[in-house]
Design brief:
With about 220 residues, the protein is mainly alpha-helical. Helix content is about 70%, strand content about 0%. The protein has 13 helices and no strands.
């Protein structure tokens, strides 16, 4: 019997629901209604809520517009990281899933492959490549989560979030109280400046000695 839906159908309908109604709005019943079928039919395609959420993560990853590689690895790394960040920001309600759910298809790993490959073209390998890849990936997802905290917690805008933090920190946490107003006016440039710091660190950090090198320099 021919399948009535494809996983892509289910992914796209699920993503629309999450974008519109948040994670709480995604249920087998709401997805079935969107697909105009019965909830039990969906269990022929996904066997659990977790599997459904993994499909949503895959759907977002598939929307990342991966730039073509060039001979400038640093520019490529920035371009891939920026493409990932822009895509994540377009789907704020999915951010918690991106942070906590695994990807379940090879295609959904394409952005990660592009990022790792760009860093590798810069001469990184082994542990250095792994750490650099993790650092950039964590920054992209972390900054997206931080920027979108307002949307996820119904904060009105960066200024109201800054006032809340400033009020909490006043008198007891002077450094945070001083930083809060900066965040209210600087949020639009935070990603670019932060990514520059990360990439500068990767570019200028010397490689660690291998165990063999350390033995040779001992004494």
């Amino acid at each position: 019997m021919r399948a009535r839906f494809t996983l892509t159908d289910i992914q796209q309908h699920a993503l629309v629901i999450v974008d519109r109604d948040g994670l709480a709005g995604l249920t087998m019943r709401s997805l079935a209604a969107s697909l105009k079928t019965g909830a039990m039919t969906l269990y022929n395609y996904v066997d659990s809520r977790e599997a459904l959420e993994e499909l949503v993560v895959d759907a977002v990853a598939a929307r990342v517009q991966i730039p073509k590689p060039t001979d400038d690895w640093l520019a490529d790394t920035r371009a891939v990281a920026t493409a990932m960040w822009r895509t994540f920001r377009a789907h704020p309600a999915v951010i918690p899933l991106i942070l906590t759910r695994r990807t379940s298809s090879r295609a959904s790993l394409a952005p990660a492959e592009a990022l790792a490959a760009a860093l590798a073209r810069g001469g990184l390998d082994g542990v250095d490549l792994f750490v650099a890849f993790r650092a950039v990936s964590a920054f992209v997802t972390g900054i997206a989560q931080n920027e979108l905290a307002g949307a996820l917690t119904r904060e009105k805008d960066p200024a109201s979030a800054a006032r809340r933090v400033e009020a909490l920190a006043h008198g007891a946490l002077p450094t945070l109280a001083e930083l809060a107003p900066v965040g209210a006016v600087f949020s639009g440039q935070e990603f670019e400046r932060g990514l520059t710091l990360i990439l500068n660190g990767i570019t200028h950090t010397p490689r660690p000695f291998s165990p063999h090198d350390q033995a040779g320099h001992g004494g």
